[in-house]
Amino acid sequence: MLNNKMNISENKILLDIENIRKDFPILSTLVHSTPLVYLDNAATTQKPNAVLDMQNVYYKEQNANIHRGVHHLSETATFEYEKARGKIKNFINAADNKEIIFTAGTTAGINLVAHSFGKTFLKAGDEVIISAMEHHSNIVPWQMICEEQGAHLRIIPMNDDGELLLDEYKKLLTPKTKIVSVVYISNSLGTINPVKKIIELAHHNGSKVLIDGAQAVAHTKVDVRELDCDFFVFSGHKIFGPTGIGVLYGKASLLEQMKPYQGGGDMILSVTFEKTTFNDLPYKFEAGTPNIAGVIGLGAAIDYVNGIGLDAIAEYEQSLLHYGTGLLRSIKGLRLIGTAKEKAGILSFVLENAHPHDIGTILDRQGIAIRTGHHCTQPVMQRFGIPATARASISFYNTKTELDVLVRGIEKVKEIFE
Amino acid sequence: MSELNELYQQLILEHNKTPRNFIKPEQFTHDADGYNPLCGDHYHIWLKLDGETISDIGFQGSGCAISKSSASMMTSALKGASLSQAKELFEKFHSVIMTKIGDEIPEATIEELGSLGALAGVREFPARIKCASLAWHALNAALTKTEKSISTEIEKK
Predict the structure, then answer these.
(1) pLDDT at residue A8 in the model
(2) Is B1 part of the contact surface with chain A (CB cutoff 8 Å)?
């Protein structure tokens, strides 16, 4: 697969986008009678045939419950399920399969850690640090557990470009800080945070760190051991896999100390009415029949991404970001929200005379799918003094031509609202 | 893209640019918040009721062209109207914007709506119907006083 998706020339890796696009059937659909221009990848990514086919094979030929059946299908399903766990372990370079916990998604992963870590380690007066650019899913679970445990939430502020203020962060780190939970790449601003530095500083202070990798895994290489994060969470659907499946990576030594989150089947060794002995990792945190097809689909998505290569993807997306930023900056009355030096392919903007919601509708009628609203980051909107933004978010199957279409679409908005 | 021109008519764009009654009245008897948490549209509406008559009405806040023009046209239509007239107008307006795509709306109904008839095009945009009805739900909340803040998401729950 590697060879037919890439051309190596002048020491630069160029992706064969035309061929890649053929792997994603939805990309050739028409929306309102015009070719779809899908620029809502930060919300969810499209799925390649490899993922769709794999899920189909699972349901047609392998479907059974896992970990308990002695019959052939159950053994096959269990094998495929655990094989996918291994792929994910390798993908983020975890030390062991038992450090890979399957969840319903990023939100579920953060809730698991907030609850389980919180119930085990947080006590009254302790502090949890998050940042000013967190998604609601990395705010609310911590608010809930802090309230329950009598702990407090502290916020790392950011500057007008959407960059975290590390000096302020350093001041927030105290002996009370039990955990720091920050986003790798901001979904509304595109900022790539210096997570390695953030982790280093936290560890120096004796605090644990969770990295919300929802927007990172499909766009940059992640090595959890190199980062040395304690927890890393992401969603399958943002990396070309199915919805309803996600991953929580946690260092085994920590996960072992943490209380289970949900009780039920698969997470126990033995149950009597008097006492239950919990299962070992990772099953301790995987109560109930999991999303087997989702796990297998996610495994296929990761194979697909590996086949293209994240370095090539990152490089290509940076070139698109650079091109798109230039185009948008040349539009009079358009203001980019999120102008960090280190940015991923997210272009959030507001227009002088048109509300993002109206922009979204007018672009949609031209076949262009973007996201409008607060992107589940209301504090970010408050920080920038705006109610909402329009957000175009890039993936490696997008093209410069599509960004040209976006700009023409925005011109149409301006025409209407002039 | 003809539906776009149907949606963003001159009258709507004009009300969006210079909304009428975009002010908090000096005196009021009823008020409420109108909020769509999904898109962030947020208005406050005030009205002064003299007996059965809406003698003054105003709104403030921010949101898209559809929600703002709808609030502007609504307040224009209701200033000086009786409560029963307001109720009747809301029901008519609601039935028009909820008419299924492809179904005929009687010409007379649109005419009865006056300037609000300009919003009939919103029915072609299911995602935007809530924008058009936000101010009306806020008005209803102000009059019934059941909710301090009305959210477009409450009906769903």
Answers:
(1) 45
(2) yes
Q: What is the mean pLDDT of chain A?
A: 95
Q: Please state the domain extents for chain A.
A: 3-48+309-417, 52-306
* CA atoms of A381 and A359, how far apart (whole Å): 17
User: Do A3-48+309-417 and A52-306 fold alike per CATH?
Assistant: no
Whole-Å CA distances, B152 to A103, A119, B99, B119, B126:
31, 36, 19, 18, 14
Residue A206 neighbours by CB distance under 10 Å: 10
Task: State mean pLDDT over B67-80.
Answer: 96
> pLDDT at residue B155 above 50?
no
> At the top level of CATH, which class does the domain B2-148 belong to?
alpha beta
Q: For residue range A81-113, what is the model confidence (pLDDT) as tens digits? A: 999 999 999 999 999 999 999 999 999 999 999
Query: CA-CA distances (angstroms) from residue A105 to A42, A190, A247, A252, B50?
Result: 14, 20, 7, 20, 54
- The minimum CA-CA distance between B99 and chain A, rounded to whole Å, is 19
Q: What is the pLDDT of residue A10?
A: 43
Q: Which residues from A are below 8 Å from B63, CB to CB?
A: 355, 357, 387
Distances (CA, A) of B87 to B82, B138, B143: 9, 13, 11
Q: Which class is domain A52-306?
A: alpha beta
For residue A6, pLDDT beyond 80: no
> What architecture (CATH level 2) is domain A3-48+309-417?
Alpha-Beta Complex (3.90)
In A, which residues are within 8 Å of B7 by CB distance?
A: 361
Q: Distance between CA atoms of A160 and A187, rounded to whole angstroms?
A: 16
Q: Would you call B39 and A365 a contact, using CB atoms and an 8 Å cutoff? A: no
Helix axes A292-308, A49-57, angle to 10 degrees: 150
Contacts for B4 with CB less than 8 Å, ≥ 6 apart: A361, A362, A365, A416
The values of phi and psi at residue A44, to 5°, are: -160, 155
- Please report, for chain B, the start and end positions of each structural domain, with discontinuous segments joined by +: 2-148
Q: Is the pLDDT of residue B2 over 90?
A: no
Element (H, E) at A276: strand A276-278
Q: Report the amino acid identity of residue A188.
A: S
pTM of the model: 0.93
More confident residue, A1 or A342: A342
A416 at interface of B, judged by CB pairs closer than 8 A: yes
Question: Is some CB atom of chain B closer than 8 A to the CB atom of A380?
Answer: no
pLDDT value at residue A148: 98
**Do the Cβ atoms of A34 and A229 come closer than 8 Å?**
no
CA dihedral B123, B128, B134, B137 (to 10 degrees): 50
- Confirm if A106 and A141 have CB atoms less than 8 A apart: no
